[in-house]
Design brief:
mainly beta; 22-stranded antiparallel beta barrel; 49 strands; membrane; Plug_dom; transport
Length: 938
């Protein structure tokens, strides 16, 4: 049945390896009766050679790619529970044409064919999933590699593939216990070590993970059960340099404008549970229940110093070193540093349930019913706490030397930032101004920190029904027709407060960190800043040292939104199987309709007039906060997209396969871009005549957005050497008919409810708002060359050795703004390459893997957890693994031991200002990671 072959998880317990250092090769789906990636062959003397483990997984992958009608890449478990990558993203990133972006040193998002993660979708057992991010793109940290049995990446769509993406569709597959055919128990554990050490005083440099899996059958193999679990408790350490930017001096030379740099320690804990219960109700009816649960926690502590330099009252001394218009060394006097001790806590729980029933009749009729539910609850708390020498103009300033180079800027301060007696809890720069809450609570002399809690809920209900009729004709093999309904809702509620010292009642107070909360110092020697004071701001908040003052300004309430979309997706697909002379033609042709009803609600800030003057505000003689309300609005729209598709594969007896595909592809807009909300604020400009003008700028979502659309064409040429190896060249072209980009629009400020900017300040007559709109598209095209070559194909002397990998070249011409120069897509790298050299024989195995991607536009977390796009430098990641599998007949049969190393060259993540790589914005190092562990299957 075509449905089952495409959308039911198939099992290959020792299929393609995704252990660290491996790289998968393309495959489509494993045979349903395959329970282990082994292959047998007879020698000329009649003896049987058994090929197992990684080599067999490669051969299975080659065979499945050869049989596939779509352009597909695939990875499967080398062995049950034998998946030591930190997340499934690190395994997928080794596929041809795919790459990843690192977050905190680990891969968490995937780019396919030069498109950012926004252009792909991820399914779990063929079903759409909620996400832990603000958009549709799945962050793969949420999915333990150990509970995933197989991943299929569809680079071309077909009509029966629901939830498809524009760049590709990633389908995560869990085990089907009846397909396994036998009882299997698997356990594994590993320890990890981060060689950067304990960067923050209370952090860790060692961690662990454990996993287990049970697969069994009952009632004469009529009932199957699989239960899997994985628990991770591992640290990640980061040294971060970040520059505000690079303004020009009076001489026209670029110089660092300011620095916000930290050491960050992350403790990642994740519990992943997966269960499948499968019933063979009759020889023609099978019913399957799936459940997946993930409890994810990412706790970070960040400590550093924010240094206002050229963009502040600090003075650049005249004795500087300038190279080709760039100041590489010098000194700033009068620097008032802002010490930072920040906490970031991300908690997410994901629930996913599915029920599938399939009927495979004896008369050629087949049917399927699938119901599913997915939900994610997420909280992101960002707590900023400031310290320094004194509040505002009070306290010592520093004279700081600096040297700017390819790794950022290193400083030479005069002050001791690790002295708890002189470094105080305060607002050193008075940033944020005097904040007054509606109840009269006040923070005078600037805010001492900020509390930002983002509450996100995401739910998906999905129902699908399909019928298939198989034919006995000599061209069309079968006809599929079905309909899918998806109802998705996503909402964000911000909960934000100013952080103020309880003791600060006069606008001058700064206090020492109480002794019971002093944690020692954190070393910032890599920045030249030496030790800095360390404490946990959550402890101070819980103890009442800090108080929370609600942020009553309109820029908070307008961050909230709710987006709901209902999609009805009917489709019809004809499957092809025919002999053309000495060749075989297979494939499918069909059409899918995406009937969409979307609506969004959000808030626009409304100025309700000045608050009554509260006590304390008047006493201090300070202006009081404006009375800001919100006007909530809802917007709805509906539309239909028709998505035809064609996939053809021509197979020759000589081992050549030629594939051609054409389709209309689609991806829906980012959900945060669809919000119906509007926020705005002031930027103050002083004119030559002394008048201060408040320029109004802001941003808005667009609930009327339509999807990205593309006409796509693929042509591939493949040569197979039996089932042992292959070489392939895959050409693709995408003509983007619609592209979503941000555009500035000008509106009268009289249309906005604006708060008073202050006395003697004039509001500009027009406001500039930045909104996402549907614009012109462009083209993206390229070629992927991939292959798997066991050296035994050429000579028996090299039995056990081999290579596998791929190189991709992609070119883009995207001009979203009419008349503007073409620009790169987010996540686009012109070159992507990955490869693995391996040896496996007599139980020994060794692999070395390399991943390269050229420069790209990456997304990093900016202020208030907002996404920021920056130009990232090329990356080359090298991993390796050695191991031993105890052989059949050994007392330890079934036991595997391994030692692994990640990021062995300590490759940094670097972003720079466009056009000048000397202007380093981010320079992050993650260090090397080493893991040792075992897996045992019995």
């Amino acid at each position: 049945m075509a449905i089952r072959k495409t959308f039911s998880a198939t099992i290959s317990l020792s299929a393609f390896a995704v252990a660290l250092g491996s790289m998968a090769t393309p495959a489509f789906a494993q045979d349903e009766d395959t329970d282990e990636a082994t292959e047998t062959a007879e020698t000329t003397d009649g003896n049987v050679i058994i090929v197992s483990g990684y080599r067999a997984s490669l051969e299975n992958a080659v065979a499945e790619k050869r049989r596939s009608d779509l352009v597909v890449e695939s990875v499967s478990a080398e062995d049950i529970g034998k998946l030591p990558d930190a997340s499934i993203a690190e395994s997928i990133a080794r596929l041809p044409g795919l790459t990843s972006q690192r977050l905190s040193g680990r891969s968490n998002s995937i780019s396919i064919r030069g498109f950012s993660p926004d252009f792909s979708t991820t399914l779990l057992n063929g079903r759409e999933q909620t996400t832990t991010g603000d958009n549709r793109a799945v962050e793969y940290d949420q999915y333990p590699a150990e509970v995933i049995n197989q991943v299929n990446v569809y680079k071309t769509p077909m009509a029966s593939l629901v939830g498809q993406g524009l760049s590709g569709t990633v389908d995560l597959r869990t085990i089907r216990p009846l397909d396994a055919g036998k009882t299997i128990f698997s356990i594994g554990a590993r320890g990890s070590y981060a060689d950067l050490g304990k960067l923050n005083v209370e952090s860790n440099d060692m961690g662990y993970r454990v996993n287990g899996l049970i697969v069994t059958q009952f009632a004469d193999n009529k009932i199957g059960l699989s239960l899997g679990a994985s628990y991770v408790d591992e640290p990640y350490q980061i040294q971060e340099f970040n520059a505000w930017g690079y303004p020009t001096t009076g001489d026209g030379d670029f110089v660092i404008g300011g620095s916000k740099s930290y050491v960050t320690s992350t403790q990642l804990t994740r519990l992943g549970l997966n269960g499948t219960l499968q019933f063979e109700i009759s020889p023609t009816v099978t019913s399957t229940l799936d459940a997946f649960y993930s409890d994810f926690k990412d706790d970070q502590i960040k400590r550093g110093i924010e240094l206002p330099l050229y963009w502040s009252g600090a003075v650049l001394q005249p004795d500087t070193t300038v190279e080709n218009g760039f100041v590489t060394a010098g000194q700033f006097n009068g620097v008032k540093g802002v010490g930072r001790s920040d906490v970031f806590q991300r908690k997410a729980k994901l629930y996913s349930f599915g029920w599938n029933t399939e009927y495979e009749g004896d008369d050629g009729w087949n049917a399927m019913l699938d119901l599913s539910y997915s939900k994610t609850d997420r909280n992101e708390l960002s707590l900023e706490s400031n310290w320094g020498t004194g509040r505002g103009s009070i306290g010592a300033t520093d004279n700081i030397g600096f040297q700017s180079g390819p790794q950022g800027t290193v400083f030479s301060p005069m002050l001791d930032y690790g002295n708890f007696n002189t470094m105080l809890l305060t607002s050193p720069q008075g940033w944020g101004g005097n904040q007054i809450a509606p109840n009269g609570d006040s923070i005078l002399g600037g805010q001492d920190g900020y509390y930002n809690n983002r509450i996100i809920k995401d739910t998906i209900w999905q129902a699908r029904m399909e019928v298939e009729k198989e034919f006995n004709g000599n061209f069309f093999r079968s006809l599929q027709a079905g309909v899918n309904f998806t109802d998705r809702s996503k909402s964000l509620v911000p909960d934000e407060y100013f952080l103020g010292l309880v003791a600060n009642t006069d606008g001058l107070t700064s206090v020492q960190v109480p002794e019971q909360f002093r944690l020692g110092t954190t070393d910032l020697t890599y920045l030249g800043l030496g030790p800095v004071i360390s404490y946990n701001p959550l402890d101070l908040l819980d103890a009442g040292i800090y108080k929370l003052v609600p942020n009553a300004y309109g820029d908070v309430v307008v961050k909230s939104y709710s987006v709901n979309e209902k999609l009805l997706t009917p489709y019809v697909q004809l499957n092809i199987a025919s002999q053309l002379g000495g060749a075989e033609l297979t494939g499918n042709i069909g059409v899918q309709a995406a009937i969409t009803d979307q609506n969004s609600s959000g808030a626009t800030a409304v100025y309700l007039g000045q608050l009554d003057v509260p006590e304390g505000c008047a006493a201090a003689g300070e202006p009081c906060a404006p009375n800001i309300g919100a006007q909530f609005q809802k917007f709805s729209t509906s539309y239909t997209n028709w998505l035809p598709s064609l996939n053809l594969s021509l197979r020759f007896d000589s081992g050549f396969v030629v594939r051609a595909a054409a389709a209309r592809e689609i991806i829906r807009p980012r959900m945060d871009d669809m919000r119906n909300s509007l926020s705005f604020g002031y930027q103050f400009v002083t004119l030559p005549n002394g008048t201060t003008v408040a320029a109004v700028t802001g941003s808005s979502g667009n609930p009327n957005l339509r999807p990205w659309l593309a006409n796509a064409f693929d042509l591939t040429f493949e040569k197979y050497f039996g089932n042992k190896g292959y070489l392939a060249a895959q050409f693709f072209y995408k003509d983007l008919k619609s592209y979503i980009y941000n555009q500035d629009v000008v509106i009268p400020t009289s249309d906005l409810a604006l708060a008073s900017p202050g006395e003697d300040i004039v509001i500009a007559p027009t406001a500039v708002l930045n909104i996402p709109i549907n614009g012109e598209g462009g083209s993206l095209y390229g070629v992927e060359v991939a292959g798997t070559l066991p050296f035994e194909t050429f000579t028996a002397a090299l039995d056990g050795f081999g290579i596998t990998g791929g190189v991709s070249y992609t070119k883009t011409k995207i001009s979203p703004t009419p008349g503007a120069p073409s620009e790169d897509l987010p996540g686009y790298s012109k070159w992507v390459a990955n490869g693995t050299a391996f040896f496996e024989k007599w139980g020994f195995n060794a692999r070395a893997s390399i991943r390269y991607r050229s420069t790209f536009v990456g997304e990093v977390s900016g202020f208030a957890a907002n996404r920021v796009r920056r130009r990232a430098a090329p990356e080359t990641i090298i991993d390796a693994q050695i191991g031993y599998d105890f052989q059949d007949g050994s007392p330890l049969e079934g036991l595997s031991l391994f030692l692994q190393g990640q990021n062995l060259t300590d490759e940094p993540f670097v972003t720079t200002n466009p056009g000048d790589p000397r202007q380093v914005i981010d320079y992050q190092t993650y260090g090397r990671r080493f893991m040792a562990g075992f897996n045992y299957k019995f």
